[in-house]
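Can't attach files on this board, so I'm pasting raw text. These are the components:
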Amino acid sequence: MSEHVLEIRWHGRGGQGAKTACAMLASVAIGTGKYAQAAPEYGAEREGAPIKAYTRISDGVIRVHDAIYYPDIVMVLDDTLLVTEGVAQGLSEDGTLLVNTQMSPAEVRRTLELEGRTIYTIDATTIAIEEIGRPIPNTVMIGALVAVTGVVEVEDIKKKIEQKLGAKLSAKMLEGNMRAVERAFEEVRSENG
Amino acid sequence: MAERVALTGNDSAAYALKQINPDVMAVYPITPQTELMHKFAAYVADGEVVTELVRVESEHSAMSAVVGASVAGARAATATSANGLALMWEVLYIAASCRCPVVACVVNRALSGPINIHCDHSDTMGARDSGWLQLYCENCQEVYDNTIQAVRIAEHPDVRLPVMVCFDGFILSHTLEALEVNDDETVRRFIGQFERPDNLLDVAHAQTFGMFALQNYYYEFKKQQVDAMANAPAVIQQIGDEYAELTGRSYGLLDAYRCDDADVILLGLGSTMGTVKQAADDLGEQEGLKCGVLKIRSFRPFPAEQILQAIAGAQIVGVMDRAVSFGLGGPLFHEVRSARYGHQDGPMLDFIYGLGGRDLGLDDAKGIFRSLADASESGRYEPTTRYVGVRE
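---
Top answer:
Structure tokens for the assembled complex are below.
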């Protein structure tokens, strides 16, 4: 039997950090001894254009090199993509959809006319503006993903943020990113409230 | 000590090149190769290598600089993609005929037009008659390992020919994966020093390079290239074995996966072979189909004998081509079929796929295996060439 591969598909817009989040999650997983793959889907790069990115995580070697058609988890970084991008396409029956939006999970469910699956929402852009000062929701979304799935440890994510962004960001921005991850844990909304 | 890291294909190649520490690296940016060059340029700027980084004004100049450096005795390397490789064209042949053992990482990308930045093998397939060796990579680990081995293969006295390390644009170049890297000292010892015996700068034994040779000598030059290429399979195998002893990862001319008792075997190159291996496993478990995968690592030299051995027991053979020779079909298909002539019978189908980066999903790979099994069962083999995933 092949090892199960957890497949995460990211939908975002150019500039929202989907590519960075996708790679950060994979490298954290690899750092803990797992196998992982992060593959952003490139087009003609331009800010605001819809983009997809793929993260795979497994205990065994990952051999496939295709797009993710049947994700276990879908991450939506921009809720305007809900109606234009078919974000739930192929999402497995017991899969999870996590959306950056001010809507409730029930509203997202109505918008997508989706049955089954588990929906979570979080207002990641507002948190990002408040904590980081910029509308880049990716670190908040990673925090929310870790909060609802436990796919990696939050401490490992924080270490990676410090390692990857520490040299680029001011101490204040870095702290803001850490707080953003923590707030994601508290503010992610499930359908049960 | 080996270390487990997370790198993209471009970063894997750059890391290998850092450890190789070539004397000269000539580079010109082109997507999707550019990040490789960026990373290597950072190693130069940080003083982690002693390489002279030559920033040229075109790929034609990049390959020319590499040839010049090589005949002057330097260990030289470059990297490019697609139209960049096309612009190197005339100098590729010169590098091979001057017996320059240089390494070029080619990040596979579709040739224009229409303009496209994504993966297919139209770029390197066109260079298959240039006199270069070509190694294709399935994943980032192989990008790293092949780049290191390429140096040894190229410089081996029985070969002394340039080597292309080919890896799929974006699918590998921009995909982050787990891989194991050697420590610097291990790589340094493995590749050793490069001593070019016919050195342009050896003024005590002055020689001419890139000279004029008409009816009198040109033919002999070409025959020597033919002979050197004929020596290459044994050298590739020997260096692969040596590398396996060092790292535990074995490399040969090809990689036969579940081929021994397979009814259906699919051949191909590059990153897609990982997806196809998964499809072979799944179909074996779920549908009882006996599927094998034959990944060709060395496309030049073409390992005809080894291919014949690996596919001897199959009822039907499929070949996957990520390039097309207009008016003929898939280049790999036609070479495999030609290799079988006079030795092996049996039906074959050609599957063209993935042109311009069109994704080949796991479902597509399973579909290819099933269509081979169906053809074998029904005895209907037409059409021979099939276009996977194209809209008509």
